[in-house]
């Protein structure tokens, strides 16, 4: 049984289901969900995560496994995914925007 409640985040045309964890007072997203939220590629998220862990801004012990059900060829399939708490994805968000601001200031 999943220990998370799902809350739908809606902003204009953008919708995202977010896992909420009342016990640990955080919210969880997968790399794919972070990529959608921040409008970047999953490769970009993965690169930032690698850098953040390598620079010891955060460690990878904060990740968890979760299950998602998706439709594949007209059948429901359960897949394991790695999810990350708010403190991880906020650091990624800040890193993405720092790079964006640096690129913009060099114009």
Give the helix/strand layout.
Layout: E1 5-11, E2 14-21, E3 26-30, H1 31-38, H2 42-54, E4 64-72, E5 75-85, H3 86-105
Antiparallel strand pairs: 1-2, 2-3, 3-5, 4-5
Helix pairs in contact: 1-2, 2-3
Written account of the structure:
13% of the residues are buried. With 107 residues, the protein is α+β, with helices and mostly antiparallel strands. It is built from 3 helices and 5 strands, in the order E-E-E-H-H-E-E-H. It is globular, with a radius of gyration of 15 Å. Helix 2 (42-54) packs across helix 3. Strands 1-2-3-5-4 form a 5-stranded antiparallel beta sheet. The N and C termini lie far apart (51 Å). It is 38% helix and 37% strand. It has one domain (5-105).
Main attributes of the structure:
single chain; alpha+beta; 5-stranded antiparallel sheet; globular
Provide mean pLDDT, rounded.
80
Residues in helix, % = 25-40%
**What's the total number of strands?**
5
Question: How many H/I helices?
Answer: 3
Main sheet overview? 5 strands, antiparallel
| Radius of gyration, CA atoms, in whole angstroms | 15 Å
Q: Uncertain segments of ≥5 residues (pLDDT<50)?
A: none
Could you spell the SSE succession in H and E letters?
Answer: EEEHHEEH
Strand content: 35-45%
Strand order of the largest sheet: 1-2-3-5-4
């Amino acid at each position: 049984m999943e220990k998370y409640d799902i809350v739908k985040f809606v902003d204009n045309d953008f919708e995202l289901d977010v896992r909420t964890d009342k016990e640990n007072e955080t919210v969880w997203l997968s790399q794919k969900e972070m990529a959608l939220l921040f409008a970047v590629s999953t490769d970009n998220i993965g690169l930032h995560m690698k850098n953040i862990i390598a620079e010891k801004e955060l460690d990878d012990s904060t990740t968890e496994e979760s299950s998602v059900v998706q439709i594949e060829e007209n059948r429901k399939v359960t897949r394991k995914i790695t999810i990350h708490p708010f403190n991880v994805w906020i650091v990624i968000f800040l890193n993405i925007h720092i790079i964006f601001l640096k690129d913009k200031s060099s114009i």
